[in-house]
């Protein structure tokens, strides 16, 4: 018998309150090393809040436990230990594509010339060949998102948090980026937590899909995705895929109705 591997990230009874708004309440979530976990849930249920805590940008309420690499840590100690792509791309308008991409490495005190050379090499893979010297205002929304994604990849940490990274992409580019992301993930064996509004995307990418409840968000249901890898586009028409999609959509719809049925 092999020893069970401890989770890379383990959240227990995580809660976060902003003034009179409780964003998340009692979130329990464990992510195994190398796992790809996708998170769906109604708008405003606290998904980004959860990520901001894991990225070390926000503190949870007292009593919440965050464990990382099998140790209890203060959330702010996670800053710089995970790579994070926030929901808004947050590119600096006065920096070109390359210098935006290398920003976290630069802050860390890495070698700027080496980082630039690596970013140059990665441009084609991110559909940005020839755009090294462009500034964010010269890029399309999708391109800006790909720069932010490239920046997240360049900051090599075991845990990668992606908050709706493909949200602004057209359907075709999105499908291409999903397959590309799976390739890169399989090659590099990174652990990924991925937020999306798109159930197809959640199933296609994930080892496991979590559905969050309406605010205050908690994990309503989680389902393993027992579909073979590497994943092929034809999977989306398989019986297993359709059955899982139906179940997840029903759970999301139930929660969305709660969200939109409540007076704000
Ligand atoms: N910094 C903040 N200060 C005050 N309230 C906040 C803050 N960040 C989030 N909230 C509140 O917490 C709740 C959850 O927001 P959050 O951004 O986590 O939702 P979400 O699930 O990511 O939504 P979406 O799918 O629309 O991105 C919302 O009611 C929001 O108003
Ligand atoms: Mg969000």
Main beta sheet, described?
6 strands, mixed
User: Measured on Cα atoms, how large is the radius of gyration?
Assistant: 19 Å
CATH architecture of the largest domain: 3-Layer(aba) Sandwich
N/C terminus separation = 53 Å
Mean pLDDT score = 92
Percent helix range: 25-40%
SSE order in H/E notation? EEEHEEEHHHHEHEHEEH
Q: Supply the number of helical segments.
A: 8
User: Which strand-content bin applies to the residues?
Assistant: 15-25%
Identify the CATH class of the largest domain: Alpha Beta
- Walk across the major sheet and give the strand order: 6-7-8-3-9-10
Task: Give the ligands present.
Answer: adenosine-5'-triphosphate, magnesium ion
Shape: globular
Number of domains: 2
Give the full name of the CATH homologous superfamily of the largest domain: P-loop containing nucleotide triphosphate hydrolases
Q: What is the total tally of β strands?
A: 10
Low-confidence spans: none
């Amino acid at each position: 018998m092999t020893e069970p591997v401890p989770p890379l990230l383990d959240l227990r009874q995580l809660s976060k309150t902003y003034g009179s708004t409780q964003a998340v309440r009692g979130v329990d979530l464990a992510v195994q090393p190398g796992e790809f976990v996708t998170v769906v849930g109604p708008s405003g249920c606290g998904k980004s809040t959860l990520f901001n805590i894991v990225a070390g940008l926000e503190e949870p309420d007292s009593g919440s436990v965050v464990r990382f690499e099998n140790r209890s840590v203060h959330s702010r100690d996670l800053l710089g230990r995970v790579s994070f792509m926030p929901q808004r791309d947050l590119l600096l308008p006065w920096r070109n594509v390359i210098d935006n991409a290398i920003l976290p490495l630069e802050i860390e005190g890495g070698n700027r010339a080496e980082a630039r050379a690596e970013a140059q090499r990665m441009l084609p893979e991110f559909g940005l060949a020839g755009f090294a010297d462009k500034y964010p205002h010269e890029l399309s929304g999708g391109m800006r998102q790909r720069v932010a994604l490239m920046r997240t990849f360049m900051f090599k940490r075991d845990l990668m948090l992606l908050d709706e990274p493909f949200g602004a992409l057209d359907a075709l580019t999105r499908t291409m980026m999903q397959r590309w992301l799976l390739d890169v993930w399989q090659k590099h064996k990174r652990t990924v937590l991925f937020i999306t509004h798109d159930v197809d995307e959640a199933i296609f990418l994930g080892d496991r899909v979590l559905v969050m409840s309406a605010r205050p968000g908690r994990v309503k249901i989680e389902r393993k995705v027992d579909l073979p890898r590497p994943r092929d586009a034809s999977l989306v028409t398989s019986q297993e895929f359709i059955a899982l999609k139906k179940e997840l959509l029903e759970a999301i719809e139930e929660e969305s109705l709660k969200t939109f049925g409540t007076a704000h």
